[in-house]
From TrEMBL:
Keywords: Membrane, Mitochondrion, Repeat, Transmembrane, Transmembrane helix, Transport. One of its GO terms (biological process) is mitochondrial transport. It comes from Cyclopterus lumpus. The gene is slc25a20. The keyword Transmembrane helix applies. Mediates the electroneutral exchange of acylcarnitines (O-acyl-(R)-carnitine or L-acylcarnitine) of different acyl chain lengths (ranging from O-acetyl-(R)-carnitine to long-chain O-acyl-(R)-carnitines) with free carnitine ((R)-carnitine or L-carnitine) across the mitochondrial inner membrane, via a ping-pong mechanism. Key player in the mitochondrial oxidation pathway, it translocates the fatty acids in the form of acylcarnitines into the mitochondrial matrix, where the carnitine palmitoyltransferase 2 (CPT-2) activates them to undergo fatty acid beta-oxidation. It holds the Pfam family Mito_carr. It catalyses: O-propanoyl-(R)-carnitine(in) + (R)-carnitine(out) = O-propanoyl-(R)-carnitine(out) + (R)-carnitine(in); O-hexadecanoyl-(R)-carnitine(in) + (R)-carnitine(out) = O-hexadecanoyl-(R)-carnitine(out) + (R)-carnitine(in); an O-acyl-(R)-carnitine(in) + (R)-carnitine(out) = an O-acyl-(R)-carnitine(out) + (R)-carnitine(in); O-octanoyl-(R)-carnitine(in) + (R)-carnitine(out) = O-octanoyl-(R)-carnitine(out) + (R)-carnitine(in). This is Mitochondrial carnitine/acylcarnitine carrier protein. Solcar repeats lie at residues 4-95, 104-192, 203-289. It is found in: Mitochondrion membrane.
Length: 297
């Protein structure tokens, strides 16, 4: 059994994150547009009837590149973010081991996963804020930001560092429990799929893809209500929600019902499997490479 190495987790997690963005960003764009579309006026219909309608309209109006709007921000942020995420998980596991070969229980794995969520929030919150603003501006037709760096400059000029980190508490509320579920479900599925007498390192590529994809499904099943609130809050005009997520929650439930907390559910779930399958496959590949190149790290 390979000892836990938080540093190897760091580098392998960064590579896994890059794989995730390339595989999942188009459906993330659709998810954000569905979550933030304005409430129709009397007699008008919704801008997007659902996931497929949003996809068709985006392709018709903006082409394939429309699905990759705002990708530079998560791509720049996602490498360190996933590196820190997997580092935090490795650190959480290592902190709980009494001996290097101790097998952790599922509650211990969940606690390690939650720690990774805390680690990533500082990077995730500004990246999500920029990504969401860039994704929705194309659908509204009002182009305010020329790109990620222009978005950062304008936010900082208008609102200071607070403007860039708007939505941090909601990002934390989303990522801490979801990260616990993410890593625990992945480790559980790896255990289930590993044949008797074999090690996790011998898992086939389809098994890794399935375990990673399902971990993404479990993660988003927990995360999506907080993610809806976060997307609404981060893209709202300054001062609209003075009491933070409580105001967003009240408005959503009052105007659109509890079901509004699961807006973009289909897009999220369609994206979750391939994106996270790609992430964990990239992570496992990078870990094997690192274990071969620097076994003592």
């Amino acid at each position: 059994m390979q000892p836990i190495s938080p540093m190897k987790n760091f580098f392998a997690g960064g590579f896994g994150g890059v794989c995730l963005v390339f595989a999942g960003h188009p459906l993330d764009t659709i998810k954000v547009r569905l979550q933030t579309q304005p409430k129709p006026k009397p007699g008008e219909s919704l801008l997007y009837a659902g996931t497929i309608d949003c996809l068709k309209k985006t392709l018709a109006k903006e082409g394939m590149k429309g699905l990759y709007k705002g990708m530079a921000a998560p791509l720049i942020g996602v490498t360190p973010m996933f590196a820190v995420c997997f580092f935090g998980f490795g650190m959480g596991k290592k902190m709980q081991q009494k001996t290097p070969d101790e097998i952790l229980t599922y509650p211990q794995l969940f606690a390690a996963g939650m720690l990774s969520g805390v680690f990533t929030t500082g990077i995730m919150a500004p990246g999500e804020r920029i990504k969401c603003l860039l994704q929705i501006q194309a659908s509204t037709g009002e182009v305010k930001y020329a790109g990620p760096m222009d978005c950062v400059k304008q936010l900082y000029r208008e609102f200071g560092i607070r403007g860039i980190y708007k939505g941090t508490a909601l990002t934390l509320m989303r990522d801490v429990p979801a990260s616990g579920m993410y890593f625990t479900s992945y480790e559980w599925l790896k255990n289930v799929l590993t044949p008797a007498g074999k090690s996790h390192n011998e898992l086939s590529i389809p098994s890794v893809l399935f375990a990673g994809g399902m971990a993404g499904i479990f993660n988003w099943a927990v995360a999506i209500p907080a993610d809806v609130l976060k997307s609404r809050f981060q893209t709202a005009p300054e001062g609209k929600y003075p009491n933070g997520f409580r105001d967003v929650l009240r408005e959503l439930i009052r105007e659109e019902g509890v079901g509004s907390l699961y807006k973009g559910f289909n897009a999220v779930m369609l994206r979750a499997f391939p994106a996270n399958a790609a992430c964990f496959l990239g992570f496992e590949f990078a870990m094997k490479f690192l274990n071969w190149m620097v076994p003592d790290l």
